[in-house]
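Folding Problem: From Residues to Backbone Shape
Fields: amino acid sequence; protein backbone structure tokens
RECORD BEGINS BELOW THIS LINE
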Amino acid sequence: MPRSTSLSAQEFEEHLEYLKQNNYTVIDLAQALDSVQQGVSLPDKAIVITFDDAWRDIYIQGFPLLKQYNYPFTVFVNTDPVDQNQRHTMTWDMLRELKQHGGTLANHTRDHDYLVRKPKYDKAWLTAALANIDYAQQRLTAELGPVPKWLAYPFGEYNNRLKLALKDKGYIAFGQQSGGVAQFSDFQALPRFPAAGAYSQLKSLKTKLASQPFPANYTAFKNPVIRLDRAERGQPLLEVELTQAQKLGVRQQLSCFITGDRHAPRWPTKMKFTVQAEKVLSNGRNRYNCTAPIWGQKNYYWLSHQWLIYGGEAPPKQ
């Protein structure tokens, strides 16, 4: 399990103990999604735990701790490595055991390939991408019984055409950009806070856990894939339409960051702000993050949007 996307058993136990000691309610992802979509109130300080990839370390180190704390969780599974009995991947029997003890299994494609780093976005591309996803869904169902139609995009990468196709097929999908979930979220590109690798420090995680979803119209965001081979500049403009501007703190306290550097937002209207990179972003994944104080509270609204700056050729798998 790569260190860049993992954490030690000790770090994970520290996270779980913090949740317990600070009265967080860890709930099942299905309950969370159903409640949010229907506008039903969730328990106070409700969170969900998810894992990407069916790494065996989840079973060996994480699963015993989750059982100890009696916390539900979801694992997004790429099915080919399981079918191939790869030694660092869980077996189907291990996944069945997870399901019997509070785990939900969901779709992470069959092979964890890049879905949108392709030369053309034509009908053949979309057909192949959906076939990959549907194959994984069929394998999960065949081995585990009924599973929800949830997809975690490999590397958190998607484009708007794929999002719409998944919506038509009844999928809820998850990216790798940061943030919480609310009724106004885009349910084909839901955010999640990373808590592994460089993001495993409990000090920074505490702030993220206390944040709330930024009140914005996420479905209006531009296509997140920027194709450099089509003369598009690598300085994408993020336009954010607010849905609850009255709840934001002082407008001047809105802070936006691009690849870690602060960038001042512009306000063309009272209900809309924009932020744009001042220099061409590097190829690959880049994130814009914005936070704003919540009026009358000590916590923050949090918004993140991931861009894929792409030259037209698919890189080797990471």
